[in-house]
Specification:
alpha/beta, Cytidine Deaminase, domain 2, 6-stranded mixed beta sheet, 18% strand
C-alpha cells in the first residue's frame, strides 16, 4: 500500500495507486472508485467506492458526483485533481456496460472544473488505462 502514501505526479504513479486499491483482493461487485488529490498530487484521505450501480450509467448522477467532487476540491484542495476507475469482478476484456461506465465517468469528469486524470478500468486480474477509442465510442 506504499503507492497510496506517495504523491501522484504521472500515469505510472496513478497506475501504481489504482493497483494498490484493486489488488490483491479484487472486487465483490461493480464499483466506481474516485480519488481526489491536492495540487501537489497528495491523495486526500478517502477513496470513494460507489457501489450498487445499475448496469448502465446515469449521466445525470455522474454529473452530480463530479459537481460534488468540485466542491470538495475547491474547499479543501484548491488546484487539485480527481481520478476515477471502474472495477468489476471477473476477467478481462471490458464489456459494453464497462465501456459505458468508463465513457460516462470520463465525460462527467472532463466537464468538471477540476483537473481530471485518465479513467482506468480494472477486473480481478488487470488494471489499466481506458483506451481513447472507448471513451469517444
Amino acid at each position: 500500500m506504499e503507492a497510496l502514501n506517495r504523491p501522484v505526479h504521472d500515469l505510472a504513479d496513478l497506475t501504481a495507486m489504482w493497483q494498490a486499491i484493486a489488488h490483491p483482493f479484487g472486487f465483490s461487485e461493480p464499483s466506481l472508485f474516485v480519488v481526489m488529490m491536492d495540487a501537489d498530487g497528495v491523495l486526500l484521505p478517502s477513496v470513494l467506492d460507489v457501489k450498487e450501480n445499475p448496469p448502465r450509467p446515469d449521466p445525470a448522477l455522474l454529473a452530480d458526483l463530479a459537481w460534488s467532487i468540485e466542491r470538495v476540491i475547491e474547499g479543501v484542495a484548491p488546484g487539485g485533481s480527481a481520478a476515477a476507475m471502474w472495477g468489476r469482478p471477473g476477467r478481462p476484456p471490458s464489456r459494453p456496460d464497462d465501456d459505458a461506465w468508463c465513457r460516462s465517468a470520463h465525460e462527467a469528469f472532463s466537464a468538471a472544473a477540476f483537473v481530471a486524470w485518465p479513467v482506468f478500468f480494472a477486473t480481478d486480474e488487470t488494471v489499466g488505462i481506458v483506451p481513447p477509442d472507448v471513451l469517444v465510442g
